[in-house]
Amino acid sequence: RRHTGEKPHGCEFCGAKFVDKKGLKAHSQIHTGAKTFKCEYCNAGFRANAPLQYHIRTHTGDKPFKCELCDARFMRKTTLNIHVRTHTGDFQYTCKFCDLKFVYESQSKIHMQRHTGEKPYECGFCGAKFVIKKELEFHLRTHTGEKPFKCEYCDAGFIRKRILLDHIRTHTGDKPFKCELCDARFMRKTDLNIHVRKHAGDFPYACKFC
Length: 210
Hints:
- It is found in: Nucleus.
- One of its GO terms (cellular component) is nucleoplasm.
- The chain is of the alpha+beta class.
- 40% of the residues lie in helices and 13% in strands.
- It has helices at 21-32, 49-60, 77-88, 105-116, 133-144, 161-172, 189-200; strands at residues 9-10, 17-18, 37-38, 45-46, 65-66, 73-74, 93-94, 101-102, 121-122, 129-130, 149-150, 157-158, 177-178, 185-186.
- Strand 5 and strand 6 (73-74) form a beta hairpin.
- The termini are far apart.
């Protein structure tokens, strides 16, 4: 049938046709809302197998798609294709205000909002506004007290995963950020940046008295 183009199985809701019953069944769930593909790690359900497989990788950490130009790996092929543009210089999205170019459309939109001052995401507790939804989500936790990122070594909890990773290093002693000008190492990149200023002679804070 794939050679002849014959599609004998038709959808009763919209008339779409499929080669086999399996394809029809997966399609029908779009109309019925059924989510028969279940995650074995959590209770999440999906209408098709492909999104389920993507979801499972968030549990397993599997990143089967590797960039041929560097060591980066990705869970989805579409994400890999977008990443490759950073190597080829294929920046499809241009800011209409300053001609800065971007690989990702989302980056372009966020950047242009900084020109326009648009902050579409507003906090329902205090009225604070944000450029991106993720920043609003982080902010809301300061009101609700939610700290979903828990330390495996102690009872500390954190609003952001990045802050948790910084904290974990106080337990492990890991210092991944190394100065290129000396042997100093740091737990946080911000501490490294401050340290590098000492080599460059960049002291931005001056005493107003002396």
